[in-house]
Design brief:
By secondary structure, this protein is mostly helical. The chain contains three helices and no strands. It has helices at residues 5-26, 38-89, 94-120. It is elongated.
């Protein structure tokens, strides 16, 4: 394949950049320390902890599904190209190519399963 090194590095760098941006945006802001009673401070702390746990679940589920889907897509591109080349040389290889394509697509299914497990907790 005639793919430049810069183009191969671009997708993982973008994935890491987007992931880090989402993680830093999900960090809750700390409430300002005004004159509050102990009950009000406890209520704010409890609400912030619950919101932080919920946002962490959503980010984790999104990362599990998104990165698994992106990885499966990249892998499917390589496997599909090589599979079509193999089938064009030898049509009897079609069933083996479909097995390899199914193995790559199962990675995306694992990502969906992990997303539902994370959201279900």
């Amino acid at each position: 394949m005639n793919v430049k090194t810069n183009e191969r590095i671009l997708v993982p760098v973008l994935a890491v950049t987007i992931s880090l941006t989402l993680v830093f945006l999900a960090v809750p802001e700390f409430p300002l320390a005004h004159a509050q009673t102990a009950a009000q401070k406890a209520a704010v702390a409890g609400g912030a902890a619950g919101a932080q746990a919920q946002s962490s679940k959503l980010i984790g589920a999104g990362l599990a599904f998104g990165l698994a889907g992106a990885g499966a897509g990249i892998g499917l591109g390589f496997v599909g190209a090589a599979g079509l080349a193999a089938i064009s040389d030898n049509p009897k290889m079609q069933s083996r190519v479909f097995i390899f394509v199914g193995m790559v697509e199962s990675i995306a299914i694992y990502g969906i399963v992990m997303m539902f497990i994370i959201l279900g907790q």
